[in-house]
Specification:
Layout (H helix, E strand, L loop, with lengths): L2 H12 L10 H9 L4 E2 L8 H14 L5 H6 L15 H14 L2 H14 L7 H11 L6 H9 L6 H12 L4 H7 L2 E2 L6 H16 L4 H12 L11 H9 L9 H15 L15 H21 L4 H16 L3 E8 L1 H10 L7 E3 L12 E7 L2 E6 L5 E4 L14 E2 L15 E4 L8 H14 L5 H4 L3
Helix pairs in contact: 1-9, 5-7, 6-7, 9-10, 9-11, 11-12, 11-13, 12-14, 15-16
Length: about 450
Amino acid sequence: MPLRAALEDLRTFRSFRFDAPRQLATEAAANAIRPPTESVESHPPLDLDEVAVRVRRALGTGVPPTSSDLLRAPWCIWDGVRPLAEEPALLDSYLRLVEALSRKSHFRRLAAAYAVRFPENSKALRPVAASLARLAPKFTGAWSAAHDSLRIFDVAEAPVRIASAAIVRRLSPSELLSDEGIGNLAAEAGLAEAAFAEGLRQIAVAEMEPGHRLDAVRSWCGKRKGASFEKHRGLVADALVLPYADKMPEKPARDHMLSFLLGKFGDPRTREAKWSPMKCTAVVKRWLIEQSLRQFLDVVDEIALERHWKYRRAFWTAVYNRNLISDACVIFDKVGEGRARRMFDGETPFSKWIRGGSKQIERGHSCLLLRIGNGLVAEWSHNGRCNIWHDALDPSAPELHAETYMSSDVMVPDSDRRWTRRAYNHVPPDGYSWQSKVADEIFALTNTRIMQNEYTVR
């Protein structure tokens, strides 16, 4: 359901109230002085399986369980060795008994177990919700009021309405329910979790600017490391990224999104298992490739000679625009690292130089590592060369995304007949000679020709 329609429905239901049956004056007075907040007991009793045995025996013989067992029976529906949910006839007998007795204490305990567990895939959830919906008009209190306003005992509608209202009021689902009088319901409770997931689905389809979408997702997820509900981390990332799968947002907005995602879930290029639930992983990786290329070009651009650097920028931008780069990372020294942190706020991944290797690392020296086809490219800044390995399995080829590198790690060694390796100097800068040679190597790796007019500096 679209967010706008959900909110319109929400306003409609807020103005609706069930007609309560007549009450004795003493009962009405007693209800009036009861506290408006229901405190949810979130843990089953220690002797849960023993309770279940007694409840099952009593219902099987047609004798009502004891009052004490009936108060604890709601936890037997989905918990324990033999949950009542696995025996539909037995569950039906229990629910009919609770409705026939029509006691508020039983209703409140059943509602609490329903909200805490709320197992969406359980066939027992709907009959439990239906019983609670029939009982709600008979009792005043927070649960009944929440059903009036949020349809809390409607399995399909409750998550939608809770999520819609929570988004509008800038609250988490559990905070919203607390405001509605249902206190002590943990953020991890099943109903709150279902509303959390639904809220992300609503954000994903809502029309909003990238910055506003990031604010909405960040606010919805709270301050925790990772998603509020770890199994829904795919929804978190997808709600933020998939609306822009076909068209990248502007660079600043994209960088802020990447910073948020990498801060929550790490780099998808090095933490593949963490990103397996995300549908947007390929999109994020492409954004990261562009960011790594931009890091290298923008940071080095501050210290490089323009007559040299503008030609390298044009060439590698053309390669990226042809979608030939499948992975990328950058290596900085302390000077480059400082510039990168100043220019790219937040979680922008890069590697660092360490001492060692055959080449002296100059001040500001950087290197861009690219995976192109089956090969690897190490493009150095300053007077470094463009190093190309035609096979990533070459034992001398570097691995991408290591924390640190020595200079020799990203330089082709002496020739070896078993492996194809190349290295080219960037001279002359304006004669397009080195570009033509590297373009030939890229053609050998990808069977795609980068034409000179694509990287000509005008």
